[in-house]
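ok here's the first one, seq then struct tokens
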Amino acid sequence: MSVDLSALQAIDRSRLDSSGPIDAPRAIKEGVLQAIGIEPIDRLRPHEETLTAAMAAVAQGILETDAFRWPIIIDGASGVILDGMHRWGLLRTFRFRYVPVLRFDYLADRAIRLDVWCRLLQDVTPGGFASAAELFGLREVPVPLAGIAKRTGALIVGPDNQVYRFPLQEDPVSTLRRLNAFEGELGMRLKLQTSRARYVAEQTALEQMLHPMVVATFPPPLTKQDVVAIAAAGQVFPAKTTRHIFPWRVFDVHVTLHQLQDAPTAEGLEDAVRAEHAALNLRYLGRQVTLDRLYEEPMFQFQQPGATSR
């Protein structure tokens, strides 16, 4: 579902003097409501692995409130999950019938950006890196640091600030799993703490890769078609492979767990959820909003009239 966000440019300018949330324009609210949906849980296809620890963290918030507040973002045409793999995995584990979603036109909407998560490993010694690099067949290549963003395969910047090409496997999933194995091997050899290894946006990796004793891994670029094809084939990338930036996000789309289990049909529940939220205020919180993490996208929140934004 495409939402016309052109009105936000004037709103963002007006908010320079006042950073508080404001009511979203009516046209935007109507577009957001149309994007909200309810899907049978088994129609959706993940494109990344789910991790037990991550699902446990998600479970705490959902089960404590007995409600689902953050809809999963999907490609409406294919049912591929773009964001919210662990929320979907949790509901599926507990055998819920339905899941709240936001439907986007993934392949056609140019405003949806697909990046990959890079990895920064700190406190890596040159000797430890060299032994792991030899084991995995890394090869030093004459790629200027400025050319990393235009790579066609997987590259690694070592603690010596040299660029190494990571051997490509027979398909993107195999390459990414092999790259994860290299990171794990490096961590094991150097006994790196989890806090010394972190996933970051590519720009952050480019800015910090030359710090002392840092290794930066740059996975191969992916296309939206890759994501849809992998999910359609029943395969999944390793967790934290893709990083999607959407035209907008919304939270506090409140659907109870009872509704997700006992509603007679997905269509009927979808109509009910849209009608309920049509009576609420849709507040625009701005861009670069920090909630559970920092969100770059324009962020909206449904609220009861008179409620305070969080």
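and now the second one, same deal
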Amino acid sequence: MLIGILRLFTQFISKLSYGLLGRSKHNQVPQYRNAVSLNADGKHDLQENFETLTKRQSTQDRFSFDHIVDVLRNYSPPEYLVFPFLLKGTINTLFGKGGVGKSFILIDLAMCVATGTRFHGREVRKGGVFYICGEGNKYIPIRVKAWLKHHQMTASYGTELFLSPLPACLIDEMNVKSIEREIKRLVRVHSVKPTLIIIDTLASNIGDADENHNGVINGLFYNLRTQLQKDWNAAVLIACHVGNNQPDRERGATALPSNADGRIKVERDENDNIKMVCMKVKDGPDWETTLFKTESVTIPDISINNGDPATSLVLDEISDNIPQNE
């Protein structure tokens, strides 16, 4: 009997030591609450630990299936948010080299949706735009003021654009839940319906995670689809850099272009005009390359550097035949 008691005591001490050791190791690394965890060396591990998996299962809706009859009865075909570039409920990338004009296209799209203004003659569905400013929002007000002046408009609370003052960490489940709560708060306060979420840029909104890791990107898309999109069927537009030797694709993991529903390449032509090139449309027809010239707009009520008025660029399409959404 004494031997049995000693054996049980030994097993208890072993389990206790293992638990303390495991807990100690767990506390030494950052905690990413998504499909990617980090091992004790700080490297990404594709297999979730038990604690993270249990937490996810307990906090998310029960997984379910729907009968095909019910699916067909409730089915609605995809709708355009901005024809023909963005479909509702999709995750899209907009990528190009630095300095080609990605940010001006983002502001143009954001302001057209936020004000219900046609995007260079094309149909737009008005709604709330939530702009996650990973690189800060210091210069965005200048670009917004230039856009408003160019369109002979003024900002009001009817302009449904919301900017974040800081970047997010979109691979952290708790951070994404915090963003979701803040969007829901603004929905109540301003009576808006979120229709477009802009992430500018991918690299600056995933913390210290590696954008070249497929597990990181898969976790990002999981969080976007299950947290930020599910209640509103919003479109997501992610601004991305390109690699040094791969100008025709987003920098980073191959899971990024594979998971994206739509892909837009931005580049300059020989006349320094900005080109939007269709690289992928998962649930619709490809659209023709769209060309913009830039126009400088002076904002007299904002001074920079030596007191000179600020200036910014706005876009005007170069086209004789702008397609309309029927």
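notes on #2: The longest strand covers residues 290-304. The chain is about 35% helix and 25% strand.
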